[in-house]
Structure formats: C-alpha cells, structure tokens
Amino acid sequence: MRIPSPKSFQPNGASEEALQCEIEELKQKDLALDQEIAQLLSEGYSLEELDKHISLLHEYNEIKDAGQMLLGKLAVIRGVTTKQLYPEYDLELSD
C-alpha cells in the first residue's frame, strides 16, 4: 500500500511555502485577537458579556442574510435591482 505524499493533500497544488505563510498569518491574527480580548477585559468587560455580544452578532447576521435573500428574490420577481427596493422599505444602502 502506497501512502500519498503530503503534497497530494495540498489544496490547488499550494506550495509548502504558501502554506507556511498562511500559518504565520493565522498566528498573527490569533495574537491580535488575544490582545484585543485582553484589552476588553482590562476595560471591565467579562468573558460572559463578550460571548453574549458575539452570540447576538451571529444572530443579527443570520437575520440580515435572510432579509437580503428575501430582497433579492423580490427584486428578481419585480425585475428590478435590490438597490431599487431599498427606498421602498426605508433601508439605507449601508444596511
């Protein structure tokens, strides 16, 4: 039985160097997030409060995505762009 080389598992033939670079970027992001959490904790936020905010943001994003999907379907039915529907529903383009 032949064991495939590690290169055969790399997505899209990505090089080892590119993967190492991606690992380093992820480590930097992890460090930045740890620093941000430490700062929030030093400002008096609790982990439970942060978890609750994160949970609420996820819920908000899911609801917003559903609303965008509905607007898109309505726009297709009416033969207009989603952007054209925003004034009708008192929405800002940044919404």
UniProtKB/TrEMBL annotation:
Residues 16-43 form a coiled coil. Keywords: Coiled coil, DNA damage, DNA repair. Pfam families: Swi5. One of its GO terms (biological process) is double-strand break repair via homologous recombination. InterPro entries: DNA-repair_Swi5. One of its GO terms (cellular component) is Swi5-Swi2 complex. The keyword Signal does not apply. Belongs to the SWI5/SAE3 family. This is DNA repair protein SWI5 homolog. It comes from Zosterops borbonicus.
